[in-house]
Structure formats: structure tokens, C-alpha cells
Amino acid sequence: GEALAVSARVAPLGSRLVLLLVEDLTEARRIEAVRRDFVANVSHELKTPVGALSLLSEAVMDASDDPEAVERFAGRMQIEATRLTNLVQELIDLSRVQNDDPLEDAEPVRVDELVAEAIDRCRHQAGTKQITMAAGGTADLHVWGNRGQLAAALGNLVENAVNYSPARTRVGIAARRMSASGGDLIEVSVTDQGIGISDKDKERIFERFYRVDPARSRATGGTGLGLAIVKHVAASHGGEVTVWSSEGQGSTFTLRLPEAGAARDRATDHPSGL
Ligand code: ADP
């Protein structure tokens, strides 16, 4: 009787353990597949501009007695070299946000400074497309985090808004404080009147290298890594990034981040992190 009781007690425990092990294996396999896809994607993305550069340099050599052709090929080489530089820089940024703990050098960061920096970064591109940029509501707001990472995240959102909008439209950046159960949050949203994103694509745009229209993304110097960086920065700061969009009408990307004061209060209230 006793042996039976013991095995009856072990059995449900045992099956739960097996189930956990199976789940662990599946998760490990999924992570491995994601890693393999990423390496394959990086190789492909690097090969494309390198291959183009190699062909173009051959073309330059063959056309040495045709100065116009040489100039044309050299121009295209410059575009490919820029593409390569952007990709390598974004890969470095992505690996940095994935490996560094942003809260190690966290500080209160002024939202108006982040916004001004993001606008500055896109001023040239917006100017050539006659896109108006306007910001509001940012005064006296502070978020808690790593200044460099937060600037990269907001910069990417504003850059995308400009890149995926037609000429003579408007990009608006708005900030406000929101009460939330865990402390106040700062919400920064970037709204464009651009091409918009379908519901199907909305689920995938935050993945590394996912682009709705790869040709369009490449033409504007896109790498497909920007939103993956934004998502990682938001999450590691205890925040989130969400998107609202209507195809052909425009998009709004919203970053929610802990407010400077609120984040510090939370850290002292709950030293265990719970
Ligand atoms: P990319 O370097 O291609 O811009 P991102 O990761 O920043 O890479 O964005 C992924 C894809 O999401 C883009 O290629 C584009 O298709 C789509 N996307 C991002 N932002 C916008 C936007 N504001 N409007 C429309 N589409 C966007």
C-alpha cells in the first residue's frame, strides 16, 4: 500500500518534470533557430553590398577610358559603401543594447533634449522632402535611463517617420506623463502621415531584419534593425513600444518609459526587484 502511495505521489510530479524538460528543450531549440537565422541574415546583408562593390570596381577598371561611366560607377560605389557602414553601425548598436545593462549608468534624462536630438538627426532628410517636424508637451519631463540608448531609440522612430512619409507631410512628436500602477510613465509618441503598416506586418516589424518593402528600406539606407533596437531599449528600461497605424494614412509609434522620479522610487521601495 505504501509503495503505491509513493509512486502515485511521484507520478504527477514526474510528468510535470518531463513536461518542463520538454518545454525547455523546445525553447532552447527556438532560441538556437533564431540565432541561426540571425547569422544567416547578417551574412546575406553583408554579402549584398560587398558583392556590388566588387562588381562595380571591376566595371570602373573596364571603363577607364570613359570618364562619365567611371563617375557613374564611383557614385554607386559610394552608395554601397554607405549602406555597408550603416549596417555595421546598426549591428554594433544592436549588440550594445543587447549586452549592456542600460540601468548601470541610468540617470534622469530630459525628454526635450532627446526630442531635439532626434529632430536634429533627421533635419537634412526632412528638409529635402519638405517634411515639417513639430514637437510638443516635452517641457519638464524626465525619463530614467541610459541617455545614449534612449537617444538611439527615439532617433530611430523619428528617422522612420521621415523615411516612410511622402514629401510635404508632417511628423509630430508629443510627450506626456501617464499614471500607471507601478509609478508614473512618460509617453513619447511619433506620428507621421506616411504609407502606414498593415495589421499583418505590424506583428513583425520589430523583428531583426524584417522589412515590409526591402527595396524601399534599402533605398533610404534602412537596415531592418532599427525597430529591433527600439524594442530592446524600451524593454530593458522597463518600458514598451507600441504601434498604431492605418495603411495609406500614417502611423504612430509610442514609447512608454519610466519617469525619472518614479523609477528611483520603485527601486528603493522594492530592493528585491519584485
Ligand atoms: P528599416 O531600417 O528598414 O527602416 P526598421 O526596423 O526601422 O528597419 O523598420 C522595419 C520596417 O518597418 C521598415 O522596413 C518599414 O517597412 C516598416 N516601418 C517602420 N517605421 C515605419 C513608419 N513610420 N511607417 C511605415 N512603415 C514603417
UniProtKB/TrEMBL annotation:
GO molecular function: ATP binding
Reactions that this protein is recorded to catalyse: ATP + protein L-histidine = ADP + protein N-phospho-L-histidine
Main location: membrane
UniProt keyword annotation of Kinase present: yes
Keyword line: ATP-binding, Kinase, Membrane, Nucleotide-binding, Phosphoprotein, Transferase, Transmembrane, Transmembrane helix, Two-component regulatory system
Recorded superkingdom: Bacteria
Domain Histidine kinase: start-end pairs: 41-261
The EC number(s) this enzyme carries: 2.7.13.3
Enzyme class, broadest EC rank: transferase
Record flagged with keyword Transit peptide: no
Record localization: Cell membrane
Comp. bias regions, Basic and acidic residues: 262-273
Protein name: Sensor-like histidine kinase SenX3
Lineage: Bacteria, Bacillati, Actinomycetota, Actinomycetes, Kitasatosporales
Residues of the full protein shown: 122 to 395 of 422
